[in-house]
Amino acid sequence: MKKIGLFYGASTKKTAAIAQQIQEAFGEADLEIVPIESAWKKEFLTYNYLIVGTSTWFDGELPTYWDEIIPELTSLELQDKKVAIFGLGDQINYPDNFVDGIGLLADAFEIAGAQLVGLTSADGYSFNHSQALKDGKFLGLALDVENQPKQTEKRIHDWVEQLRKEFS
Amino acid sequence: MKKYDIKSTDKETLRKWYYLMTLGRMIDEKAPAYLLQSLGWSFHAPYAGHDGIQLAMGQVFTRGEDFFFPYYRDLLAALSAGMTAEEIILNGLSKATDLTSGGRHMSNHFAKMEWNIQNISSATATQDLHAVGVARAMAYYGHKGVVIASHGESSVSEGFVYEAINGASTEQLPVIFVIEDNGFGISVPKKDQTSNPKVAANFSGFKNLKIIYCNGKDVFDSMNAMAEAREYAITKHNPVIVHANCVRIGSHSNSDKHTLYRDEDELAYVKAADPLQKFRRMLLRYERFTEDELKKIEEEAKKELSAANKRAIAAPDPDASTVLDYVLPEPYKPKVYVDGTHNQEGEKKNMVTAINETLKAEFRHNPDTFLWGQDVANKDKGGVFNVTKGMQQEFGVKRVFNAPIAEDYIVGTANGMSRFDPKIRIVIEGAEFADYFWPAVEQYVECTHEYWRSNGQFVPNITLRLASGGYIGGGLYHSQTLEGALTTLPGARIVYPSFADDAAGLLRTSLRSKGFTLYLEPKAQYNAVEAATVVPDDFEVPFGKARIRREGTDLSIITYGNTTHFCLTVADRLAKEFGWNVEVMDLRSLIPLDKEAIFESVKKTSKALIVHEDKVFSGFGAEIAAMIGEEMFRYLDAPVQRVGSIFTPVGFHPNFEKAILPGEERIYKAAKSLLEY
Fold first, then answer.
1. In CATH terms, is domain B351-531 a member of 3.40.50.970?
2. Domain B548-676 in the same topology as domain B11-314
3. Mind listing the domains of chain A with CATH numbers?
4. Are B184 and B248 in contact (CB under 8 A)?
5. What residues in chain B have their Cβ under 8 A from chain A's Cβ atoms?
6. Which of A89, B344, B453, B547 could form a disulfide with B449 if both were Cys (CB 3.0 to 4.6 A apart)?
7. d(CA B461, CA B331)
8. What is the pTM for the complete model shown?
């Protein structure tokens, strides 16, 4: 399997912890961590498979470290890349923009021509609205460590297994 | 295709934006220091976190075409619209040369009236109604431009914001309502304000209204949103809401301590979203500027602030001796009927006809006159009492039209429309009955403040008509008279005629005057025979000129409105029964008050009885009684007496009404007692 780039905010805590679990599930040798704060064209073009992680800020925004590179990201040509997105959200306190960050990143990568993989079922979640939802599926892996912490490990495990197939 | 982005926006534009944002933030951060040095700026609401949308509002505002109503947190918006750092600081320090008000208004209210950056109230979002009024004038006069009004998300909970957006949607007016959503109304989180996290979504069902959501922390997203909004409002002649997600990095103001209700995590979270730092990082990351170039811009901003600071501190403070300036503008001075009397003979007209004919005559005389209110114009109906009958037919739907059942909207949009051009004169029926005017009192207060607060730069030219008073069996909600409550507010003329000719003359004077006049109509007299008079076609009555309706030497009865007629009957009866000669003075104007005429009469009779329909307790008569007591005591042969309503609401059953409102018997008894004293 070719190397996979794992992109997330280096300054984060919860997202970084999830990224670490994903890395462990994949096996460290297959994954390279790329801090999004320093990622640019070269980094995105280096990998054929990208896993990108984000939280959702405020009422449905990307964190600044992602938001700031969107103009660069959307100008790239990523037609030969497969991208899987994971996002953290809180269904109880922010049910109107649950894991919107996944949807916002999905939009950006689609503009760049990348193929989205790692879509998951929305079953087992309860929220009002999410930009991550398309045709009844999340455009990535939605995690709610605040309200469904016990399900996180299995969700990650299942997703990684799914990605192993979709990345091939 | 978005108009602005980090890659394609030209370097000079980016430089200008970064300069404005840096300078604005420097002022924002320096403001509290002035207070610590006791130099002023005691109210400062920091804008940090709103940078993107505020820059965009100011940049999109087009001088000479647009009107802008910034709220008290819009320091950067004002700077971005073209105000200088010095002008901002002059306002902060409340200097005599402060463009907003010469130090009269609270700091952090930035205005430049000559550019149509408007002077607004601290009661934030009340300006939304003014914005709609200006836009109505733009539509009427075919002016190309938009009105931008901004405020936070919490003030959207106010009913008048609904009224404004509803009205702009109904009338299809080019207003951009900018909601700067920072998540808090002082300490109240927005989840306690409304159920939608983005309050603009509450208006999603409004026809003709476009809603644009943007990231108010992001310069480019904000610029694109505002540019799109302006283009849409102008080309589609429709309103827009721009909902800008912001953060509040600081406290609400310098009297607020946000650490009492915000935790460290949240504060760190919003600080991480600092729009200025984000913009700076992007300028570097996308290689639009080097670190040295940005530092050079920062140095330039620092120099400008330093120079502005020195000049502003040295500027003169306001002179307290000017405090009485700009309470009321000079009124129109009647030329033919200098004292507001006449001797014309002929056919008598009732009051409703006199008002109707005067309105029509003045609307023919001045094409820049407008009238609106509830029920004022639908086919043959012209107001609840038909006062405006036939006006829409003659002057058209654009000058005479119905208003929604929203009293605040009626008054607030009149204030706004006045701002477009001082030649405009507006007549409004403030409510169906005076009893229903109370929701509009906030806008009434604004109308009274404008002239003084703007240091004479703006006064709304409004005649506010209210069908007032009782004696029609109307009960609690069709009998009220409001002068007792409203005469305490400086900044309005208040008139209250008793007869048809005075009603006509005062109305004409009001419509030819600059300023705000409350015109109270005693509705019981609309069709009353005793109020009917001969009315000269060109009759005028000056403000502040009482009229002696019956001359006398034994007692002065000072009255106005409905009770004038009772007093005249009582005076005749006392003359007939006892030979007493009672003088009856109809004040006609309460503000300005004809103090001279009152004192002359009291000097002559040495006895004063004040009669009005309103309650005795805290009624307007209390002021007259106190005035006579203080200044005319040596002329008095008896204590000043007052007759008015008892201290209850007006009951519906005739027995209640009779027991509550003053009538001839009560006046007769009081007058006789005084005459016998």
1. yes
2. yes
3. 4-166 (3.40.50.360)
4. yes
5. 5-7, 181, 183, 196-198, 215, 218, 245, 247, 269, 272-273, 278, 281-282, 285-286
6. B453
7. 11
8. 0.97
